Amino acid sequence: MAINIKYKLGDFAKDLGLANKDLIDLFSAKGGEAKKHTSPLSEDEMNYALEKLTREKQVKSLDAYLASGQPEKKEVPAEPLKRADGTVVEAPQTKKHPPVKEQQGEKPQKAAAPKREVVTMTVDTRTVDINLDKFNEKYTELAQSKPQANRKKKTAGNQNKQKFGQKQNNRFGGRGPGGNFGRRRETEAERLQRIQLEKARKAQLKVQIPDEIAVGELAARLKVTAAQVIKKLMGLGVMASVAELVDFDTAALVADELGAKVEHEVHVTIEEQLFSEEVQDTEENLEERPPVVVVMGHVDHGKTSILDAIRKTRVTAAEAGGITQAIGAYQVEMNGKVITFLDTPGHEAFTSMRARGANLTDIAVLVVAADDGIMPQTIESINHAKAAGVTVIVAINKMDKPTANPDHVKEQLTQYELVPEEWGGDTICVPVSAMTGEGIDNLLESINLVAELKELKANPHRRAKGAVVEARLDKGKGPVATILVQNGTLNQGDVIIAGTAVGRVRVMTNDQGEKLEQAGPSTPVEITGLTEVPAAGDVFDAVEDEKLARELAEKRQNAAKEEQFSSYQKVTLENLFSQIAQGEMKELPIVVKADVQGSAEAVKQSLEKLSNEEVRVKVIHAGVGAVSKSDVMLAEASHAIIIGFNVRPDQVAKAEAEQADVEMRMYRVIYDAINDVTDALKGMLAPKYREVELGRAEVRLVYKISSAGTIAGCYVQEGKITRAAKIRLVRDGVVITEDEIDSLRRFKDDVKEVASGYECGVGLQKFADIKEGDIFEAFIMEEYRE
Predict the structure, then answer these.
(1) How far apart are CA 396 and CA 272, in angstroms?
(2) Three-state SS sequence of 436-448
(3) DSSP helix/strand/coil, 691
């Protein structure tokens, strides 16, 4: 594996025998950041410089280089010959060899000389991978160990080529310049690993970072350790642990310092893909829409009767107990203008339904009986209307009664910031009589007047959006939902999603039962085609992509399940005490089935409100439709009872309930269900206990018996002492302890009780420090019910 060495431009130029300016000009021609003699060079930059210099100093033939490398032959003078007498004999002259060039020129003249064939081999150095190891300290030391004389004779180009050759020899296991063998030949696995590492270094890492990211996740994306990221954060003045979140800007700075290229990760949710509307609401495409009116008030003050007078139909007699059992939506026309009415139940059990109705509406008609005045549910309705931000019109009903007092009603309204117009306020008060029809037209005209002042508009040229008013499960049609289109236009065949329900609109009908192909803003319609019964109050949207809509519905279902599972808290030190307290509390699980979703929710909330500190009512399931076998199986597994509201169990469920001994109760009026559950809770309340004093005894002697322990000789002053009684030991008016009797004897006989005026021996189970003069108070705990 290659050894990475930080190499400066000046050192690199010195080793190459070049001036710093030459290398700076070379890198400037390449482009990029300007270099200085102290600038560090990367492996790619040094490879580029070596390759560039190799090309520039490349020669066509190596003959001149080889000729210049042959050692020069020097003439060696022959020593003179001496005779025996010491005289010098003159030596013969040595023949000088002609220069190489002269010898090459004489070759055509010498026929006997053999012809020499020169083969030129070109080595393409452009594809050779130059590694930084050639600049290792090892090679620097070897270069310094060479004779200084030889180093001076070499030219700059010759030096470059020699270093290049040394590197090649060392890379492939040849001999180095000092005659020693270089590194061992690398294996194929090492070569592949080296190539992969070099490619990874050369390719700049790209990371996507969201608006917020955990430190550990950032480290994983940068392919570094969390400690490296934390170190960089500390350098930026940010102290964060592995699990903490950092913002995009901070994470981008860290990634940049670690050499990564940062891209901003933008999450596009399924909702954004589905509900992105191409057509925007502008003043040009907004059109006037009918007002949506809700009728509110106290029970039996005549809300449904007023709607009945408006619709000219009679529906009140069909309602059990005088309570509207489901929310309905209707449209009426007055002076050519359409008004949409929502009918909400008046009983307090339907508070949540009434709140949803107010949120769907523009105008609230508050019905107050002229003879009763404002009642508790009237106040509740006023608060809901104010919270929803709707305009309130007061309909003072039952003006046909002789005891009607509208002025008293107006006086009460001022207490709740509803000042009538005739008294200088802005609240319209209309006296009406649902029985005679008096004032109904004035009420409708007032609604149109308020709607005109509010300038209610919507855009019918976009996909529909609205809310679910009511939903139920029909045996023949399947899930049926009454919806109110608040904006856009709903067409038959559109794909809609409402909560966890999704589907394509198969049939769409109005309140008169007429089939429609389109429904514009403020239009209530009943639709079929959904996969399940949506919840009343769910927002619905018409979408284009059915596949994405089903994916979103599944996502919402999973989220609902996770929320349900998360409601079961895990024990921690903080909630340990409360968990223990809840473990002691009894629970009454109930399965609720109703004819419509709104009623099921109302019954659920009414029952759960009956919970108290000792008994908790828990509705484990609230559904729509007949009681089925699965409901009975759920009740059996949960030890629950089944309460049905306006539904009946099918035969299979009835047989299953009888076999499993599951109690089922069916009701038509919610009052009866609440009363029965309340009575059942009274039987389940934890019994209360009170202390009943039995008698008193004075300790006159104390005996220490080895086999029986401490025995108190007592005299019963009043009442009696029984074997099953508890004893409270009182000394000088202070309670010392409470204990139970271990033994009660008269003389040597065990007895069950000792009456007043008799003596006895009493031994306690735990306490032994008994003294003469102590008082034993005998008592029992008696259960009682209020």
Answers:
(1) 47
(2) CCCCHHHHHHHHH
(3) strand
**Whole-angstrom Cα distance, residue 393 to residue 175?**
105
Q: What are the strands, taking DSSP E only, across 280-424?
A: 287-288, 292-297, 328-334, 337-343, 363-369, 391-397
User: Shortest CA distance to 623 belongs to which of 649, 604, 608, 650?
Assistant: 604
Cα separation, 478 vs 481, in Å, equals: 10
Rounded to an integer, what distance in angstroms lies between the CA atom of residue 288 and that of residue 520? Answer: 11
The residue written with tokens 């006159």 in the block is 700
Residue range 248-268: mean pLDDT, rounded: 86
* Chain segment 575-603, per-residue pLDDT in tens: 445 554 555 556 788 899 998 888 888 88
643 or 162, greater pLDDT: 643
- In the structure, what pLDDT confidence band is assigned to residue 71 with cuts at 50, 70 and 90? low
pLDDT at 207: 87
How far is it, in rounded angstroms, from Cα 138 to Cα 383?
Answer: 89
pLDDT at 317: 40
**Which tokens belong to 98?**
């002609």
Identify the helix (H) or strand (E) that includes residue 590.
strand 586-594
The residue behind tokens 């629970």 is: 587
Residue 642 CA: distances (Å) to CA of 310, 604, 663, 665, 683: 39, 12, 6, 6, 18
Tokens coding 506: 């198969």
CA-wise closest residue to 243 among 220, 259, 264: 220
Residues with Cβ within 8 Å of residue 128, at least 6 apart in sequence = 168
Q: How many CB atoms sit inside 10 A of residue 281's CB?
A: 15
